[in-house]
Specification:
- Helix 1 packs parallel to helix 2 and helix 5 crosses helix 6.
- This protein has helices spanning 24-34, 52-65, 107-122, 143-148, 162-176, 182-191, 196-213, 219-227, and strands at 41-45, 70-74, 94-98, 126-131, 153-156.
- The protein is elongated and about 60 Å long.
- Strand 3, helix 3 (107-122) and strand 4 (126-131) form a beta-alpha-beta unit.
- The protein has 8 helices and 5 strands.
Length: 230
């Protein structure tokens, strides 16, 4: 049996650090999946930046805290790993595949994943899948694999509404350990691209800057930080 590759836990990507917005139902279902809930498979989907990777990592950490063996793999369009890496994964209690849409059209991966799918399910283990669209729109050539993607619950991650963005910024900043006053948050949203992954990275930079300068976050200080952006 091949030993599955280890993946890096991102310790900051937990359920506690995820701003739920209108996605409390999804979080509950993910926690149940990582525990001993009756569902064996979940498929979540949503637009780029909505938090899919965060939720999959959080599910793995939740499972690990319950003394289970989780595994996480994020597919990328430019460099797919060898399908042989699936060997042995059928023994992992929770397997999470992120951006599953990128293996569509790759016959070797589709065939290997189909084989893994059957073995993993026969072992009564849990599977968590994420993509940018529902299963029925995934362009898989292997139709039996596509069908299996719909075997469990399919849930859409709801994007944040404009009126939730300030709350999300406040939540994220508080989790990092600093305060972002509402007027500063509004200035940031009005003058910085509303790309959530980029915003969260910027918050980390703001956190480091306020800590280094031992200053509270104000609009002038925020302007200074933004001006130093590469």
């Amino acid at each position: 049996m091949q030993v599955p590759l280890q993946f890096e836990f991102q310790s900051n990507l937990t359920f506690a650090s995820f701003f739920a917005g209108n996605n409390t139902e999804i979080i509950t279902n993910l926690q149940n999946l990582a525990d001993d809930g009756i569902e064996q498979q979940l498929f979540i989907w949503g637009e780029r930046g909505c938090g899919k990777s965060h939720l999959l990592q959080a599910s793995c950490q939740h499972a690990k805290a319950k003394d289970k063996d989780p595994f996480f793999l994020k597919f990328t369009p430019d460099q797919l790993p060898s399908p042989q890496m699936l060997e042995g994964l059928e023994n992992m209690e929770l397997v999470c595949f992120d951006d599953i849409q990128y293996i569509a059209g790759h016959a070797d991966w589709e065939t290997a994943l189909f084989g893994f799918y059957n073995s993993h399910r026969q072992n009564n283990h849990k599977l968590l899948l994420a993509a940018d669209c529902p299963p029925k729109y995934l362009p898989f050539d292997l139709l039996d694999l596509k069908t299996r993607m719909s075997w469990g619950l399919t849930l859409k991650i709801q994007p944040l509404r404009d009126d939730q963005l300030i709350d999300a910024l406040t939540f994220k900043a508080h989790f990092l350990g600093f305060d972002i006053p509402p007027k500063v948050g509004r200035f940031l949203l009005n003058h910085y691209v509303r790309d959530l992954p980029a915003l969260w990275l910027l918050l980390e930079k703001i956190d480091r800057a306020t800590l280094a300068a031992q200053r509270k976050l104000t609009i002038p200080f925020l302007k200074q930080i933004l001006a130093e952006q590469p």
